[in-house]
Predict the 3D structure of the following.
Amino acid sequence: MPDRADAVVIGGGVIGTSAAHHLAEAGVDTVLLERGSLGGGASAHTAGMVRTYFPGDPHTGRMAVRSLNAYHEFAGRTGAPLGLRRLGFMVLFTDEQQIAAFEAGLPAQRAAGVGVHLISAAEARALNPLIGEHAVLAAAWSPEAYHVDGLDIVRGYAAGARNHGARLFTHTPVTRIDDDNTVHTPRGSIKADSIVCTAGPWSGEVAGMASVDLPMTPRAIEMLFTDVPDVPDVPDTAHHELPMTMHATSGLRIRSWKDRILLAMGMPGAGETREAWLGRISGHLGTLFPALDGIGLHRAWSGDFDASPDNTAFIGEHPNRRFLYAAGFTGAGLCQAPAAGEKLRDLLIVK
């Protein structure tokens, strides 16, 4: 552990490694501290998708467009290929008000650079043949959505950061932060000219050590697998690559995952049993995708993510001390990591 650094990044997920890479690339003497293994937190518990369309949120869409452009250039910047595979992203509308809201917000989405348009129910079924014939009225379709392994992003940015001189320490939790930005860990202490908080669900806890208030609350999510589907009307269902498909009302999301289907719909609500929650999911599946009615559901993985009050990430700095932060990505960290790293870099180097 060095005695000091220009920047100490706390958190080694996609946001933290992106920050470390962009800072080191800009010539900033950078140290990253991760309490576990790189990418071992929220970055490893995702649906493995990057997309640019976020319903009702063109600001996040703008960040995601900027980030997707960076992912297409990722290998050239880091030396690590990502293997992006296009799947597309679809949002199913089941009432007229949802369609009207989509059309009202379309100019703002287009202004943010997001490629999305309204398609008919028949067009939606052509893209995802599991959709029931009378299940939806229309859908939003955004082709710019890709499968990616979040750990590949973490490893690529970590390698890029090291190549530019950054030092990355894993299994090094932060135990205290002094008023002069001395960061204490079990491996020693380091004085930081600037602290960069990218600790995901633990960002509020880290910020609190520095007497900084980040108004965020961790949320839990569980991903589920279905049994291997066997749908006579869809030949070779197990190998049919489905786009990520989300129901606008319930938030249920499904996508292909090898020979099964991966899905998510949050976690049980307050006072709701797991059995009742699984029953709600099964009900929506049976209505929207009749071929999956009654299919077995199994736990895939679960984890926490950092959520902001309005589900929009906040990236900034404390007005009275050299403490920067990027948190509250509400499950969309993969989609915004490159732009977040660039913004943190710009905030720090203009000082």
In short: The chain has a mean pLDDT of 92.
